[in-house]
Amino acid sequence: MTTGETRGGPGSAAVTFQDVSKHYGEVKAVNNLTLEIPQGRSIAFLGPNGAGKSTSIDMLLGLRKPTHGTVRVYGKAPRDAILAGHVGAMLQSGGLLSDVTVRELIGLMTKLHPRPLNVEDVLKRANVEEFADRKANKLSGGQTQRVRFAIAIAGDSDLIVLDEPTTGMDVENRQIFWHAMKSEAERGKTILFATHYLEEADQIADQVIVINKGRLLANGTAAQIKAQAGFQRIAFKLPGVTRDQLLMLPNVVSLEVIRDRVQIQTSDSDKTFYALLDAGLRPEEIEISALGLEQAFVAITQQDNGHDEAAFDKTAFDKAAYDNTGEAAR
Ligand code: ADP
Ligand code: MG
Q1: Does the CB atom of residue 107 touch ligand 1 within 6 A?
Q2: Do residues 194 and 10 touch, judged by C-beta distance below 8 A?
Q3: Residue 163 alpha carbon to ligand 1 centre in Å
Q4: Comparing C-alpha atoms, which of 246, 262, 264 is closest to residue 254?
């Protein structure tokens, strides 16, 4: 396994966004994004549809120009980094050439790169050998995505950028694909992939960058993001309890009562639970759990959606920006 520190020296970033915005008229597709993507890790770019993932990715590939701010890839302007062969990409849309086989297509694509892999290695690493002799435009949706991944790795680039790579994949294709992607990560490649699937980010990424409405909401490991959402859930059964009794408890963030079943979201499960007991209540079938990444993501984006531009939660943003620059800047 390599360290992945093949460009720019130890600790330097693969990608930096500094105060990057992209506006389309009134639409702020990307809004003042500052972040750093370290080398040699797998990073999920997580956000709902319309969050600005593709716009950000296209800017880092030099396909769209920021309205403001600077994007750097291995310290270079995106186009220069691409010309130097540092980046392989799989865009969200775009078909494959027709009338060529998969093997021929990969052969063509390797010629675009200064230091490509050989064709048979690409086919093997992307695990597309079984349909290498089929026409590229006669594949299933999932197979097409796997060939597009093969194209992304063909140049043996340090950075592999994948925009919603598993769209249209069934479970089997998805597993084969993730296996191939993990192997590239183990070779020390930096992998940045956009997704709106929480499980993918949770299971596969070393680092998760959450964006919503073009803004950075969180940046850290899945565990850190769950902690940033900062809530736990307490569930129990308590016949006859009223909403008012429960709303008196400390640290309650939200409450759901359905007949004798209660679910509380709390910012401090110990405090809430002890107060419940101190109030003389005796719940049964008690469950206390942390939020999953999915619930954390929903909580973080809902908090954000609840704020207008002016009232944007500065704490979450500052924390994310700090987490983001804390290590590499020193
Ligand atoms: P995501 O990839 O996270 O789904 P996008 O980056 O595609 O999000 O889009 C972010 C926002 O920018 C959306 O509101 C989208 O409608 C808008 N947008 C994207 N591309 C354009 C464009 N070429 N012209 C106008 N608006 C656009
Ligand atoms: Mg997109």
Answers
A1: no
A2: no
A3: 13
A4: 264
Q: Kindly give, in sequence order, each residue whose CB lies less than 8 Å from that of residue 2, ignoring residues fewer than 6 positions away.
A: 40, 187, 188
Pick from 201, 194, 189, 209: which is nearest to 87 by CA? 189
Ligand 1 pocket, residue 27 CB under 6 Å: yes
Of 22, 55, 65, best ligand 1 pocket probe by most atoms within 8 Å of the beta carbon: 55
Q: Indicate if ligand 1 lies below 6 Å from the C-beta of 29.
A: yes
Task: Retrieve residue 206's tokens.
Answer: 């070393």
Distance between CA atoms of residues 167 and 179, nearest Å: 16
Closest C-alpha among 190, 202, 212, 217 to residue 290? 202
CA separation for the pair 254, 235 (Å, rounded): 12
User: Do residues 252 and 239 make contact, with C-beta atoms less than 8 angstroms apart?
Assistant: no
Judge if the beta carbon of residue 213 lies within 6 A of ligand 1. no
C-alpha 236/C-alpha 239 separation (Å) is 10
Tens of pLDDT, residue by residue over 288-320, are 987 767 677 777 777 777 653 323 333 333 333
The pLDDT score that the predictor gives to residue 11 is 57
Which H, E and C letters describe 131-150, residue by residue? HCCCEHHHCCHHHHHHHHHH
Rounded Cα distance, 216 and 35, in Å: 8
Instruction: Considering every ligand atom shown, identify the ligand nearest to the alpha carbon of residue 167 and give its number.
Output: 2
The verdict on the CB of residue 195 being under 6 Å from ligand 1 is: no
Residue 28 · residue 213 · CB < 8 Å:
yes
How far apart CA 92 and CA 53 sit, in angstroms, is: 10
Please report which residue ranges of 187-218 form alpha helices under DSSP H. 198-204
Nearest CA to ligand 1 atom 7: 54
pTM for the whole thing? 0.76
- Alpha-carbon gap, residue 274 to 279, rounded angstroms: 9
